[in-house]
Design a protein that fits this description.
Blueprint: H1 2-7, H2 22-33, E1 44-49, H3 52-61, E2 73-80, H4 85-95, H5 100-105, H6 108-114, H7 122-134, E3 138-142, H8 147-154, E4 160-169, H9 183-186
Antiparallel strand pairs: 1-2, 2-4, 3-4
The structure holds flavin mononucleotide.
């Protein structure tokens, strides 16, 4: 079932003028809420954006990707920046011991934003994209946007940053999945052999 859905998925940037019902939005959000996260910390907030003017303003903050402004629904995946980021730095030192000095000495504000656990929001985002597809709703991930401007538009407190924008809507045209690399190109067994 999941493979059926995935093999027909593609990024959708043209949408019908059709509102997504609230019960479907709730279903999508629930799929995100149930995601795993490191230490089950769930370091995120999901911003639902349905106001036309706000969607248009966000499309401007996404370096004028105009197609975003015509979507009926955005979900902005926001990450809570870890305040006590010393522990988070230790985790990165354990992963990249060769960069220990750089990791420990990097400026706090810069480091906490560059290492804001924002990769974790890819998980609820992926759940949401799948849940939406079950209801015939297409989407596109957007990470090309000005973080400061989107934060301001959403009134986010300083401890949150927007990490991804998911743009949702009923597809305005045919879904044409793009070619993907074949299995041999992306899988290796035991030893890397690419
Ligand atoms: C993390 C991420 C960020 C993306 N950011 C953008 C974006 O800012 N604008 C856009 O038009 N598409 C964006 N995309 C969509 C990709 O261009 C698209 O997934 C890719 O071309 C593969 O096409 P497919 O999704 O139809 O398989 C993004 C995709 C991902 C996964």
């Amino acid at each position: 079932m999941i493979l059926d859905i995935l093999s027909n998925r593609c990024s959708v940037r043209m949408f019908r003028e059709q509102t997504i019902p609230q019960d479907v939005i709730d279903y999508i959000l629930e799929a995100g809420r149930l995601s795993p996260s490191g230490g089950n910390e769930q370091p995120w907030a999901f911003g639902l954006v349905t106001e036309r003017r706000l969607i248009e303003a966000i499309s401007c903050a996404a370096y004028n990707q105009k197609w975003i402004g015509r979507a009926p629904l955005l979900i902005v995946l926001c990450t809570r920046v870890v305040e006590d980021e010393r522990g988070a730095r230790d985790i990165q030192v354990s992963r990249f011991p060769e960069w220990k000095e750089e990791i420990l000495n990097a400026d706090k504000g810069f480091y906490s934003r560059m290492n804001a656990e924002e990769h974790q929001t890819k998980i609820p985002g992926t759940h949401m994209v799948l849940a939406a597809l079950e209801h015939g709703i297409g989407s596109t991930w957007v990470s090309y946007f000005n973080v400061g401007e989107v934060s301001k538009l959403l009134g986010l407190p300083p401890e949150y940053i927007p990490s991804e924008i998911l743009v949702f809507g009923y597809p305005g045209g045919e879904m044409r999945p793009r070619p993907k690399k074949n299995r041999e190109e992306v899988v290796f067994v035991n030893k890397f052999n690419k």
